[in-house]
Design a protein that fits this description.
Helix content is about 40%, strand content about 15%. The protein is an alpha/beta fold. A hairpin with a 2-residue loop joins strand 3 and strand 4. Strands 8, 9, 10, 11, 12, 13, 14 and 15 form an eight-stranded mixed sheet that branches. A seven-stranded mixed sheet has the order 2-3-4-5-1-6-7, with helices on both faces. The chain is globular, with a radius of gyration of 25 Å.
Length: about 450
């Protein structure tokens, strides 16, 4: 996990109040009070990186912090060795690692030696990019080439905030998972995420149930914010990743009955809950991360299909959508799906369907599962018949044909009969059934790494 705070291009940039520049003090603020143990330094005080281990919410973790007071945090051989040592310690202990970055990249004076060192440690803009979760404070900046280089090469006039600040990286590029107003808040978020990974807990089958009925609109065509559902399903709201990027899919790390889980949820408030190229990629990366760390998945589905359009096809929805199919099909962790209102077409398959090996698949009464909505289907199947219907009877005719189509193709009951839906459950039973399904499943995890998709 990476927490990026200060502007990496200049050590003289004003820093937010409440967080010191001394990397030892930053590490002490990250860990529980009095638990920081510094790792032996390979170089001297000029290495520009300090590493240590300690406790976060009572669980073990490792961390390193670059020192903006030494050559603006630029990375050389000694500093990179400290980062590698921190990763080695984290792997040997089996604990999360947090990187606190404030660096301008490789040290110019060390030449190719610094490039080699950065390659061994992962650094500069790719230090954050190679980690599982990136947290950026309001003053943080991440970019491969700074504004001056961009201006000289392309002629584009851009400042550091527009090029690599929280706005472009949280909404457009998807580089940043969490944005905070202050450096102190960034450390707090890092502590929460580290604790969710390091102390995943055990699921309590006797946990309280919560009635989820009444959270969705009466009309199946009316949009709603899925956070209303996730907030009541989880023990507490958890940490949402990428809330501003591809918001038609919601991804949350939280706890269910005391156990860390990952939630992937369609959000009908955005694009009607449709999947698109960006949201499929976002969800795929999240699924693979949870699988790599052995975090069970809860998938909430209310999806009308993939977003149509030339832009989507050109943006690689086929290729990027396949990432989500691959991620779910490859996953070993328990993964339970709930269809709340509808699941149509290829998007039904992609959202952890039985065909992709879901542990359990539930549906609420009245949910629809089909190639497409019944009315849309009959408009294709019976277009000649409907073309001859008087305009004043068109709506009625479509409704009659849609009812006949649903009876013929089977819908939800047929899905239960053939086993693609395990059970139809009431909203009041949902939390209990999801908890039981996860508890009874083998607690496995993937053997793959978490490639930045």
């Amino acid at each position: 996990m990476t927490t990026t705070t200060q502007d990496p291009d200049t050590a003289a940039a004003p820093r937010p109040a409440g967080l010191p520049r001394d990397p030892r003090e930053r590490l002490a603020a990250l860990f529980d009070p009095g638990t920081l143990e510094l790792l032996p330094a390979d170089g001297d005080e000029r290495s520009g990186v300090v590493a240590g281990v300690g406790l976060v919410h009572g669980a073990g973790a490792a961390a390193f912090a670059s020192d903006p007071r030494v050559q603006g945090g630029a990375m050389g051989g000694g500093g990179c060795a400290a980062i590698v040592a921190a990763y080695t310690e984290a792997v040997s202990r089996g604990v999360p690692i947090v990187g606190l970055w404030h660096s301008g990249g490789a040290r110019l004076a060390e030449g190719v030696a610094s490039l080699h060192a950065v390659g061994t440690a992962g650094g500069a803009a790719y230090g954050p990019a190679l980690t599982d979760i990136v947290i950026l404070s309001a003053q943080g900046r991440i970019f491969v080439t700074g504004p001056d280089v961009v201006r000289s090469v392309t002629g584009e006039d851009v400042d550091m905030a527009r090029l690599g600040g929280p706005e472009p990286h949280s909404r457009r590029s998807g580089v940043v998972h969490v944005v905070t107003e202050t450096d102190a808040a960034a450390l707090d978020q890092a502590r929460q995420v580290a604790a969710l990974f390091s102390d995943q807990g055990k699921i309590a089958e006797d946990a309280e149930d919560r009635d989820l009925s009444g959270l969705l609109p009466d009309s199946p065509r009316r949009a709603y914010d899925v956070h209303l559902l996730t907030g009541k399903l989880l023990d507490s709201p958890g940490v949402e990743l990428h809330p501003r990027w591809a918001p038609n899919i919601v991804t949350i790390l939280g706890r269910l009955a005391g156990r860390t889980v990952g939630v992937v949820a369609s959000n009908p408030m955005r694009l009607g809950g449709c999947l698109d190229s960006a949201s499929a990629e976002k969800a795929a990366r999240f699924v693979r991360m949870c699988d790599a760390f052995g975090v069970p998945l809860v998938v909430l589905v209310d999806v009308p299909g993939y977003l149509p359009g030339v832009g989507q096809e050109w943006d690689g929805v086929v290729r990027r959508g396949a990432k989500l199919l691959h991620a779910f099909a490859e996953a070993s962790v328990p993964r339970v799906t709930l269809v709340t209102r509808k699941a149509f077409g290829g998007a039904y398959i992609a959202m952890n369907s039985r065909s992709l090996g879901a542990t359990r698949v539930f549906a609420w009464p009245g949910a629809e599962i089909a190639v497409m909505g019944a009315v849309a289907a009959v408009r294709i199947l019976h277009r000649r018949t409907l073309a001859s219907v008087p305009p004043e009877r068109l709506h009625e005719a479509e409704a009659e044909l849609a009812a006949e189509h649903e009876a013929t193709t089977g819908g939800l009951q047929r899905a239960v009969e053939i086993g693609v839906i395990d059970a139809i459950i009431e909203p009041s039973q949902t939390r209990r059934e999801l908890i039981r399904a996860i508890a009874e499943a083998p607690q496995l995890k993937g053997t793959h790494a978490n490639i930045p998709l």
